[in-house]
Amino acid sequence: MSDKKQISDTIQVYFDSMYESNPGKVLDAFHPNAKITGYLEDGLHEMTTDEFAEFVGEQHPSPREQGQTLRADILDIEQAGSTAIARVRDEYLGMMFLDSLSLLKVDDRWCIYNKLFHVEGPAG
């Protein structure tokens, strides 16, 4: 399987984690030392992988259980050796996010090492 396909698959696991409120999939997609960082209306938010997994797991009913359509797209992937940068857009919790993901290939497996998020506005 090509690196780009593996990177895309990792990003899909990330999308699915939020759509299903599945903390295990967060842990599968993200490196244990990753940071999830960005601004919401109330200011700067920073989370570890474990904190993000817990947050995702608390969202019940999940978007999937609510019958929502998964709205998530990979806009661009740039790979340089065992590193990559991806820009993705996804709808989550009533907001449209533009995420910048940095990924690393560790032990022949791609994982998200950092996520910077920007809220573009309300979903819809």
Q: How would you sum up this structure, described in words?
A:
A hairpin with a 2-residue loop joins strand 3 and strand 4. This protein starts with a helix and ends with a strand. The longest helix is centred in the N-terminal third of the chain and has 18 residues, at 3-20. Helices cover 27% and strands 50% of the residues. It is an alpha+beta fold and 124 residues long. The chain contains three helices and six strands, in the order H-H-E-E-H-E-E-E-E. It has helices at 3-20, 23-29, 49-57, and strands at residues 30-40, 43-48, 72-80, 83-92, 95-106, 109-122. The model has no long low-confidence stretch (mean pLDDT 97). Helix 1 (3-20) packs antiparallel against helix 2 and helix 2 (23-29) runs antiparallel to helix 3 (49-57). Strands 2-1-6-5-4-3 form a six-stranded mixed beta sheet. The chain is globular.
Oligomer: single chain
Total beta-strand segments: 6
Tell me the number of helical segments per DSSP (H or I, 4 or more residues long). Answer: 3
Largest sheet: 6 strands, mixed
- Percentage of β-strand residues: over 45%
Radius of gyration: 14 Å
Gap from first CA to last CA = 35 Å
Q: Shape, please? A: globular
Strand adjacency order, main sheet: 2-1-6-5-4-3
What percentage of residues falls in helices of 4 or more residues? 25-40%
* Order of secondary-structure elements: HHEEHEEEE
Structural category: alpha+beta
Q: For the residues shown, what is the average pLDDT?
A: 97
Outline the low-pLDDT stretches.
none
